Prior knowledge:
The protein has about 650 residues and is an alpha/beta fold. It has 21 helices and 28 strands.
Amino acid sequence: xxxxxxxxxxxxxxxxxxxxxxxxxxxxxxxxxxxxxxxxxxxxxxxxxxxxxxxxxxxxxxxxxxxxxxxxxxxxxxxxxxxxxxxxxxxxxxxxxxxxxxxxxxxxxxxxxxxxxxxxxxxxxxxxxxxxxxxxxxxxxxxxxxxxxxxxxxxxxxxxxxxxxxxxxxxxxxxxxxxxxxxxxxxxxxxxxxxxxxxxxxxxxxxxxxxxxxxxxxxxxxxxxxxxxxxxxxxxxxxxxxxxxxxxxxxxxxxxxxxxxxxxxxxxxxxxxxxxxxxxxxxxxxxxxxxxxxxxxxxxxxxxxxxxxxxxxxxxxxxxxxxxxxxxxxxxxxxxxxxxxxxxxxxxxxxxxxxxxxxxxxxxxxxxxxxxxxxxxxxxxxxxxxxxxxxxxxxxxxxxxxxxxxxxxxxxxxxxxxxxxxxxxxxxxxxxxxxxxxxxxxxxxxxxxxxxxxxxxxxxxxxxxxxxxxxxxxxxxxxxxxxxxxxxxxxxxxxxxxxxxxxxxxxxxxxxxxxxxxxxxxxxxxxxxxxxxxxxxxxxxxxxxxxxxxxxxxxxxxxxxxxxxxxxxxxxxxxxxxxxxxxxxxxxxxxxxxxxxxxxxxxxxxxxxxxxxxxxxxxxxxxxxxxxxxxxxxxxxxxxxxxxxxxxxxxxx
Length: 653
């Protein structure tokens, strides 16, 4: 096993791995639930597997600088394969497992991947579908052998064969791998992650070992993470957030990552593990709250009253108690009773009973949603970062949590606001470059070494950063008032009945919006009222549903009316789309960010109808199903007006 010189701080991921294999050899490094049983790997086990995988790759011709594509759900061997490639000076390139073959093609060709490691037959089939367009791909390995018996192509291999080959190689060449690990440098590229491609083709972001380790160590020290933490690793491995929390920080702090059995069992597996450290994008927290509210709507009247009474107590003093601030004795006593009867059982159902630190990022989270989780005792905090910054720019210190900010600059990070309001950042966590895109690299980093985030923001008087919107999306209404669509959309998405929203208004006299309803929440609401429906399109067309959504929008308008510069951004008209916005239809990225320009172009006829005063508009839309089939969805969409409210700038109507 490679050795670390006495007193030397491990500065690459392979060296970190082998360090943990020495100092905590028998401690659990990874768990995976398989067929209902948790399988465990100690740090010694993981190191042994990585050594075998790395030597096997070398035997198959993998060389320093090669790219290894990795596709699949979170699985221990996929994480191990990342480290194995890094041992040889190679670069793992994780891709989104739910991407269709044509989407994967771009990244595979752009990266020039010669090797690929995928989870199962489904992913193998995607690669085979585009195989003729991948002339550089020479070897494809798979983890799960189920369904693979009749795949006889010579370039397809079971990873177990690779492991055995590597073990033989290590016995015959015991010095080979230690020499390869010793040759690694902190300034070498350790991973390449592709951007979501919100506005165009994704770009390969090349990040060094040193950059990710600096981000991981800064975050771990900031929140006092130890080797005793447990984290649930369920978010896409291709997302920078998972790479920071489930790979980099685990290797820096030495804690345990836990891989659920499947996407469908995440909540059950989370309850069994009881993570102490948790990360999820806002949409996950939104979905969890929606499920809670649906269950409460179905509960008996006594439970409903008890829930709402104690939630009122939590909203009044829960966040203050969590932050250890002074609270009246009566409220503290009521909160303790609420914890026994409501908050504790609720956290247990959510699998959050042991959480010490929880983070959300990837998009703005509604302040009411944020307040809900903190009020029941979950130490939920926001962080701010991008793929290009290893998801590490701002963190919220304990005791200084604010619902409308993303915290203060993280340790070692410099943040500056440019004259046009754009957020600029500099520090050791910045990207090395965009792969094969020197033009994009030059555009992203200015002469002073600051990365231009593309986000607009400002600092408050206490040094907390507030994100307004994407700088390119912040516009002006026809009367010159600021228009920040993402800010409006996030307010709308707080409501459990609204799954997605897209606001329009730049250069126009008023703001209008598309709405996607949450079919689960609205469906449950409709069923309890005896409203029959046959599917999403039918449910979205119900007058009662339009009235429900209108009430939500008017509540948002009431809030916007008191928000100064954004008071003119109240929504005047809306429609409910006849289909859900879908990554498979290119309307969302794989991280579920709206492709705003694409949606505006695709649904231009609906936008015209909103602004022309029409009461309805017919539309027929092509859709792509999960199995690749094409179809069409047609509907006559009703357009509704919404009440607006008086503000200092304008009288409502």
